[in-house]
Amino acid sequence: MEIEAIRLRGFRNYRALDAAFVPGVNLILGDNAQGKTNLLEAITYLSTGRAFRTRKEQELILFGSDFADLEADVLSKNRDKTIRAVLFPGRKPRQLYLNGVKQKNFTTLEGELTTVLFCPEDLSILKAGAEKRRRFLDFALCQLRPGYSRALQEYQRLLDHKSRILKDWRERPEYLDILPDFNLRLAQFGAVLIAYRANYFEKLSRLTAEYHREFSGDREEITMAYHTVSTVENPLAPRSQVEQAILQHQEAHLRAELESGQCLTGPHRDDFEVCCNGLSLKSFGSQGQVRTAAISLKLSEREIFRDDTGEEPVLLLDDVLSELDDGRQDFLLNQLKSGQVFITCCEARKFTKLGSVTHIAGGQLQPG
Ligand code: ATP
Ligand code: MG
């Protein structure tokens, strides 16, 4: 997977950018607030169909411009492709194109350009609540497994229904008649999600521990544990067994669910724990440790994707080097030998040797 060139018109602080990139490391250099992260945001938008810093598409359009046009030439699966998105303010829907052909929605563009992004907000995967960790797992698995993505959507739909039942059953007691049916289907789809997550998590935790160990010069040992519905003793057990365990949990919590009006049982409450040298990173990790572990997670995500599909996602590293000591910086820079990498930096320092340098100031390429 490789981005050969990108053209931006009216995107964030880019009035007009035409940039070409090399297959290896692309260092994006510039002072604060010049457009480095904006460039990575444009790339992830073409990769995932959404911006990682905002849900409001309007914010992506250059102030005063009546559209934003993003286009990338991509080499993937040995073919040259062009991916393009045009965004408009207000309610007018965006337009998406693949090789100049208009697409109905982003589904047909999925997988055309895969990326793994590390940005400072990703530290919250380890520091914030369980939802961030679930989102990380869901996002990685949806890119990798269409079956997971479908099961997740169905699970979510069923969960919304059940939530309504639990909220309204006092006024509409007849709702209780259909609750067992929803519970059964939630257990079936829940077991599918747990199987995918547990399998993925096994690889993820092994690789993350390896990366982190090397990263820290053998000083730190990461251990990770996947937590799902408490009655599921072995999340890797055959699906029917997991399904039974979820049903059991539902039964035991039926009363509590009716009383609280909330869905208390199922993998929508899953979480995972990360410890460093036996101590929870969330509670005790230093800034450098948390950053090291978060980057290790992302490098592992990339490696799993490559092993699974034979294609290496483009690695996007935003402001990755701050808070890392020299040893950790060197390790990371040594990890960038394969595939295409974009790495943003304020100062060139020792990094210019890594690959091609693109200077950005005020949303424009600077010569030299
Ligand atoms: P840092 O090193 O501080 O992270 P950066 O180079 O990554 O800086 P960006 O986050 O890319 O900086 O943002 C650069 C600038 O883009 C900001 O000053 C911001 O005001 C501007 N900007 C963001 N959205 C828009 C927009 N829609 N129109 C015009 N300018 C915008
Ligand atoms: Mg930035």
Automatic annotation (TrEMBL):
Keywords: ATP-binding, Cytoplasm, DNA damage, DNA repair, DNA replication, DNA-binding, Nucleotide-binding, SOS response. GO terms for molecular function: ATP binding; single-stranded DNA binding. GO terms for biological process: DNA replication; DNA synthesis involved in DNA repair; double-strand break repair; SOS response. Pfam families: SMC_N. Gene3D superfamilies: P-loop containing nucleotide triphosphate hydrolases, RecF/RecN/SMC, N-terminal domain. InterPro entries: DNA-binding_RecF, DNA-binding_RecF_CS, P-loop_NTPase, RecF/RecN/SMC_N, RecF_2. GO terms for cellular component: cytoplasm. It is found in: Cytoplasm. Its main location: cytoplasm. ATP binds at residues 30-37. It comes from the Bacteria. Residues 3-357 form the RecF/RecN/SMC N-terminal domain. HAMAP family: RecF (MF_00365). Belongs to the RecF family. The RecF protein is involved in DNA metabolism; it is required for DNA replication and normal SOS inducibility. RecF binds preferentially to single-stranded, linear DNA. It also seems to bind ATP. This is DNA replication and repair protein RecF.
